[in-house]
Design goal:
Order of helices and strands: EEHHEEEHEHEEH
Helix content: 25-40%
Number of helices: 5
Strand order of the largest sheet: 1-2-3-4-5-6-8-7
Shape: globular
Radius of gyration: 16 Å
Largest sheet: 8 strands, mixed
């Protein structure tokens, strides 16, 4: 299981992504995806065998990948990358060359760290845009997930509009490389001006 990307956050330190092992990571993932705070992940009733099956399916798919996110070397989040021309959004929006779909899930915790989720989405976005072929990142969170809509806006996503998927009503949003860069620069300027 190799690390594929590393980013150092100014405040929270090192974040990394490594290849997910469906079998070895199953117990950990099961605890995350079935937690009440992960309701929008849509796996609340899954048992561990179903989690293994789902992530084996993703690992075998030519247009979908899953990665385990590490914070300071310990598992802390999950990230998925997919090609929306073949997975999730087929026929539901106007796909463009260079579009990449993304899902992410922070591990539920009883001791939240201020700015952690924002650092995770910045890491995931930086990873996706590290590939020069990526022109836009596309997301389709549940329309009711207002927390993630606000978070998406902080990294440059613009709302396209609601779409109907088989499992949910979703809010399609897109973020170009330039939008992410601008949002990142604004956040850095805000952070520099904040009191220590």
């Amino acid at each position: 299981m190799s690390v594929v990307f590393t980013r150092v956050d100014d405040r929270l330190g090192e974040f990394a992504l490594r290849t997910l092992d469906p079998q070895a990571d199953a117990a950990l993932l099961h605890g995350w995806v079935t937690h009440p705070r992960s309701a929008f992940w849509l796996m609340q009733d899954a048992d561990e065998a179903q989690v293994v099956e789902e992530y084996r399916r993703i690992a075998a798919h030519p247009h979908h990948d899953a990665y385990l996110g590490l914070w300071r070397g310990s598992p802390a989040f999950l990230a998925e990358r997919y090609d929306p021309a073949h997975v999730e959004l087929v026929g539901l929006y106007e796909n463009r060359p260079g579009d990449v779909g993304m899902h992410f899930l922070c591990a539920p915790t009883g001791a939240p760290v201020h700015g952690f989720t924002r650092a995770v989405i910045r890491t995931v976005m930086a990873w996706l845009f590290a590939d020069p072929a990526t022109r836009r990142v596309v997301v389709e969170p549940d329309v009711r997930n207002t927390a993630v809509h606000a978070l998406n806006a902080t990294v440059g996503f613009e709302v396209v509009g609601p779409i109907t998927k088989p499992e949910k009503e979703a809010l399609l949003s897109v973020c170009t490389r330039a939008q992410f860069q601008t949002a990142t620069e604004r956040a850095a300027a805000r952070d520099e001006g904040a009191p220590a």
